[in-house]
């Protein structure tokens, strides 16, 4: 194998390694976004549960008053 082929192989390997590093960084960013969205979803679910309980309570009061 000639030195030129080895040099080309080295460049391709270096390029592949750089691409892998970029993909790893993107993956970490997406994991962080996913965690934030999960936390936001949990908060919204708690808010929904709170509102649902309040509405159920108010409907119960209305039903009691009507009876």
UniProtKB/TrEMBL annotation:
<dbReference type="GO" id="GO:0000917">
    <property type="term" value="P:division septum assembly"/>
</dbReference>
<feature type="coiled-coil region">
    <location>
        <begin position="6"/>
        <end position="54"/>
    </location>
</feature>
<dbReference type="GO" id="GO:0043093">
    <property type="term" value="P:FtsZ-dependent cytokinesis"/>
</dbReference>
<dbReference type="GO" id="GO:0005737">
    <property type="term" value="C:cytoplasm"/>
</dbReference>
<keyword id="KW-0131">Cell cycle</keyword>
<keyword id="KW-0717">Septation</keyword>
<dbReference type="Pfam" id="PF06005">
    <property type="entry name" value="ZapB"/>
</dbReference>
<protein>
    <submittedName>
        <fullName>Cell division protein ZapB</fullName>
    </submittedName>
</protein>
<dbReference type="InterPro" id="IPR009252">
    <property type="entry name" value="Cell_div_ZapB"/>
</dbReference>
<keyword id="KW-0175">Coiled coil</keyword>
<keyword id="KW-0132">Cell division</keyword>
């Amino acid at each position: 194998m000639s030195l030129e082929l080895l040099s080309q192989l080295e460049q391709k390997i270096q390029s592949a390694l750089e691409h892998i590093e970029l993909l790893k960084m993107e993956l970490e960013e997406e994991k962080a976004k996913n965690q934030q969205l999960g936390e936001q979803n949990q908060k919204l679910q708690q808010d929904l549960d709170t509102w649902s309980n309040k509405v159920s309570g108010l409907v119960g009061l209305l039903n009691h008053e009507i009876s």
